[in-house]
Amino acid sequence: MIKSFDFFFDFTSPYSYLAHKQIRNIENQYKIVINYMPILLGGLHNLAEIEAPAFIPSKARFMIKDCKLFAEKHNIKFKFNSHFPIQSLNLMRGVLIAKKENKTSLYIDKFFDASWGDGLNLNNQNVVNKILEDLNFNIETFKLKISEQKIKDELKKRTKDAFLKGVFGAPSFIINKKMFWGQDRLEFVLKEAQKN
Question: FRET label pair with 142: which of 41, 103, 105, 194, CA 20 to 30 Å apart?
């Protein structure tokens, strides 16, 4: 039987979206639940002293083509977001709120699809509010909760813990104390997950 594994992600990362779509298929095929581990990618890059590819023009141009190529190969609906980079801090804190309300899976699906399936401007609070309303969140309560210090601290801690485990980018996966980086490494993650 396949073992579950940890999936470190941030909504701002198109590669995390592509991994997410594959993981949903893995969950359905093997009847397991993967451990979604929200982190703040910008904070992780700061800890690792890495400059994000999105801010290096040549890498950014390549990333757009690369994501589209992979999405086509795997028949994943994908639209590189013209509003990139997405300011994901509050959205990632929101994952922690959704977890407390047993809406984690739906919340993650909705915001990943909004950003990379539909190309919506998640930097626009009105757009975000509409999605939250569709998820039956009270907007004012949600805003208050993501501003709570304990939620801020939890996301910071998750990001730092990921860094201390060797994670330096998203998406990353950890299983059997082994770390794999990149959505194109899922086949190796699955091989490791199938070991006794």
Answer: 41
